[in-house]
Amino acid sequence: MSFNFLSVPFLVTVIAAAQFNHDNSAENGQYAGRAASYNNATTDSPDLPTAVEVRIKLKSYLDQGLRLPNGMTCVCPSGFQCSYLGTVEPRCFMAFSVMVSPPRGSIQYMTTEFLPLTDSGALDLSRVTNEQANQWSQPHVFHLNGKPAAISVFVHHMGVEINAQTGALAQMQSVVHVDTFVQDLQQVLPTTASKNDDHSVTLTGQVIQTQLSLSYSVKCAGDALGMNCDLQCNQSSVQSDIALCRSIDTGFLYTCSYTDNNLQVRFHNCCQHFRRILR
């Protein structure tokens, strides 16, 4: 089954809407939402052995001006009364869906609950429970059969949509795709199973240019090596900085140069042999 990534924002919008569990009430001034959880959206490919571990930690988010796409906002704009809201004080609630897709097999994602923003557009973790705050700050680990090309994060808002220029109500309660963040992994050399290497980045959204900070690491599982964690290698008995490798996927043999203190090899430093070992 093929997967059309043009449909990903719509798919994640459906996921975000389905996971929302908001009773429009608060306990002790804290937002009552649904706990973050792991979910798997799968193709019809069979399960394959784990080759790569991707660890992602969301750190901070900023929607300066509390904007939504298409000139909308999630609060009553300055200079308007928004009497249609009655006694309800609108707030901005954002959920974050992290998605990774290996070359074969299952697409994996996790979705947080909807979390409130402050008036300045940052996450307001003072208004959530300790459990919810911990769920936001904990690293999320994905075990995949191959290295994904990118990490994608989709942000959604649940609540009111108000025209920022006119103050007119567009929607009282809806799920809106706010922004999309993509961190390219194609040039990231994974570490080996015995080593961790975190990368910290601040990304700008592709829709309305909000900001998301996160850290991530990509690590080969077991004894796999290479840019895509698809090589099994042995050190040459003749030259210690040379590795003799076999592709896990194709069975082809390669001679590669070691890097990172002989812990890893880069595929562009490999020469293919005209020989293949069948598994």
Summary tags:
single chain, 279 residues, mainly beta, Immunoglobulin-like, eight-stranded antiparallel β-sheet, five-stranded antiparallel β-sheet, 2 helices, 19 strands, Secreted protein
How would you portray this structure in words?
The protein folds into two domains: 5-220, C2 domain (Immunoglobulin-like, Sandwich), CATH 2.60.40.150; 224-276, no CATH class. The protein contains two helices and 19 strands. It has helices at 8-19, 130-137; strands at 26-27, 30-31, 37-41, 52-62, 67-68, 72-73, 93-100, 107-111, 115-116, 140-144, 150-163, 169-184, 199-204, 211-220, 224-225, 231-235, 242-247, 252-259, 264-276. The radius of gyration is 23 Å and the shape is elongated. The two termini are 26 Å apart. It comes from Anisakis simplex. Residues 1-17 form the signal peptide. This is Secreted protein.
Compose a concise summary of this entry:
With 279 residues, the chain is mainly beta. Helices cover 7% and strands 44% of the residues.
The oligomeric state of the chains shown is single chain
Named CATH architecture of the largest domain:
Sandwich
Q: CATH topology of the largest domain, anyone? A: Immunoglobulin-like
Report the average pLDDT across residues.
82
Low-confidence stretches: 1-7, 20-46
Helix/strand/pairing class, anyone?
mainly beta
How much strand? Answer: 35-45%
CATH class of the largest domain: Mainly Beta
One letter per element, helices H and strands E, the order comes to HEEEEEEEEEHEEEEEEEEEE
Helix content: under 10%
Query: What does the radius of gyration come to?
Result: 23 Å
Report the sheet with the most strands, covering strand number, pairing sense and barrel closure. Answer: 8 strands, antiparallel
Number of strands: 19
The name of the CATH superfamily of the largest domain reads C2 domain
